[in-house]
Write a structure and sequence with these properties.
- By secondary structure, this protein is an alpha/beta fold.
- It has one domain: Rossmann fold, CATH 3.40.50.
- Helix content is 40%, strand content 21%.
- It has seven helices and eight strands.
- The protein has an eight-stranded parallel beta sheet with strand order 1-8-2-7-6-3-4-5, sandwiched between helices.
- The chain starts with a strand and ends with a strand.
Length: 187
């Protein structure tokens, strides 16, 4: 996978199981997130967002502003508690993880969410790979993403990983490229 394919988000989310790595310009990250979520909901998926980029409450407002019902999305949030949102607790629509560095907590939350929705056709959005690299070394991020993608493939589910365009070094880019079915440049 030498080059990210430039393609519309609408064309990439299908009814078949696949894992896509989306690259977008930093200022377009929220728009890419929103497009992927809307398309996944439209396709009938039960959407789970793993966020270490924006607090889940911010994403809920963003989705509502864009005409989506945030109740249709389940959140695994590793940034709110880390940023001092100590009053925020896990509930029926959120699992709060203490920090983006807590890969054990993220792994457990991910597995718990998959069990919770095991009867549904699931789509996982991981936002964002680039943010994880702020908190963790690249080798740990790749190992964690290998766990995520392998678990999705084992369960025959789909997902997307968001990253900032130009934000991955060539080695990490090729390692991540080997874990996904498609790489998309979302402009």
């Amino acid at each position: 996978m030498d080059q990210a394919e430039s393609m519309d988000t609408e064309e990439t989310i299908t009814d078949e199981e696949s894992i896509i790595l989306y690259f977008s310009e930093p200022e377009k990250g929220r728009a890419t997130n929103t497009k992927v979520i809307q398309k996944s909901i439209d396709k009938g998926y039960r959407v789970i967002v793993v966020t270490n980029n924006f607090p889940s409450k911010i994403l809920e407002k963003l989705y509502l502003k864009n005409g989506m019902n945030p109740e249709e999305v389940f959140f695994i949030d590793s940034v709110t508690s880390f940023a001092g949102g100590s009053s925020v607790k896990s509930d029926s629509n959120h699992i709060m993880v203490r920090s983006p560095q807590d890969l054990t907590g993220l792994s457990m939350a991910f597995s718990d969410a998959l069990k919770k929705f095991k009867e549904d056709h699931i789509f996982i959005l991981f936002d964002s790979l680039s943010t994880m690299l702020i908190y963790l070394p690249a080798d740990k991020v790749v190992k964690f993403m290998h766990f995520i993608t392998t678990k999705l493939r084992t369960l025959e589910e789909s997902g997307a990983i968001l990253a900032v365009k130009g934000g991955l070094d060539p080695m990490l880019y090729s390692q991540m490229g080997s874990l996904v079915d498609e790489i998309v440049d979302d402009g």
